[in-house]
From TrEMBL:
GO terms for biological process: brassinosteroid biosynthetic process; cholesterol biosynthetic process. The lineage of its organism: Eukaryota, Metazoa, Chordata, Craniata, Vertebrata. Residues 14-27 have a biased composition (Polar residues). It comes from Python bivittatus. This is 7-dehydrocholesterol reductase. The chain crosses the membrane at residues 37-58, 92-113, 147-164, 176-196, 301-319, 331-350, 414-440.
Amino acid sequence: MASHKDSQFFEGGRSQNAVNGSGTSHGQWGRAWKADWFSLISIIFLLLSCPFIVYYFIMSCHQYNCSLSEPAVQLLTGKVRLLDIWNKTPSLTWKALILYTSWVLFQAFLFMIPDFCHKILPGFRGGVQEGAISPAGATLKYEINGLQAWLITHALWFATAYYFQWFSPTIIFDNWIPLLWCANILGYSVSIFVWLKAYFFPSNAKDCKFTGNFFYDFMMGIELNPRLGKWFDFKLFFNCRPGIIAWTLINLSYAAKQQELYGQVTNSMLLVNVLQGLYVLDCFWNETWYLKTIDIAHEHFGWYLAWGDCVWLPYLYTLQGLYLVFHPVQLATGYAVGILLLSLVGYYIFRTANHQKDLFRRTDGNCKIWGKKPKYIECVYTSVNGTKHHSKLLVSGFWGIARHFNYTGDLMGSLAYCLCCSFDHILPYFYIFFIGILLVNRCIRDEHRCSNKYGKDWKRYTETVPYRLFPGIF
């Protein structure tokens, strides 16, 4: 499903001078043009199973004390029926619908406000920024204001929940399942809308890809960058606004519920809030960099991103905090410090690797990485309009160790979140399993795309940097 954890777009830096010429790919790189039977079966399976997986995890916490096996065992042995479980599940409420609608509309409003943070925060790159070049040769501009939206949202949260006390800070946890139905309604509504939009009024018809298979096109998306007007970009909004900004608020609501139930907030809950909060803030501080990642630069916008950002991300990426509400864990000091160090080392690798690639791209290789002039491989690729572009693939710093070494740091941080929950249940460890599968899958998909895009130049690159994630292993 959708993920904010993504690889740096492989174009380490491209020449500002593009020349017309023929090439072998002619923009055929990117999302698949045809759906084979294996892809089709996989997509239908995901469309059917993913909503059930989210419901099963959340239901297991609320009805079975976070046991993933107990509901399945009781169903198989006939102790309960599906209808019994469903009847105990809170239904959609007007309160949840009003809360969720207000939340999304407020985030949409903040999304359209020009950024001021880049004017007052040294080193922050916000305001109007350019994205990556598309297969059709288009380069879009974005208003980067996610950090501003996050700051305004959280300032209002603390003011209204704690100072004015207009509502309890546990409001998200208390309405968690009714809000799930709202998130599903939005996820499916947006997915259907962008599917229809691609047929009747696409933002850029040349960057649309039709396989002719409804299920594949609906899930993986047809339009690369669907927009309403000049600035409302569906992909950037749903990837970086309602779900990601809510992530820290959801964790704060979990901490408030733990305080309400047990009279204290455990150090494990504090660690989850701090470590995941750091990741969210990093996402918004580096939102300009995010424009060059797979999600924005390559993925077409369909159910995979729309529903994934609305439902999968906020509900399954926050399982550690939810688990700690039902099973408060007080970690030994040494163990907590070890988790913190693991996370910080992983974050350092993740951020430094991405910074190296971003610096290399922005300076077109005229920089120093680890105190030396960086090494790179010159590449040429062609967009769909026949224009030939020049690019460079970095093979210095962390990018000389492995082709996706930022993912390695990412996995270390993801494991740290799970370790906060001790080892009594497997539920909070779903996150590391999912992220591991997702990132390996993205390695393979991204490299297939790059192979089609760069041809023999990509082969030279993989020979120079032979490992994907773990040197000597994979």
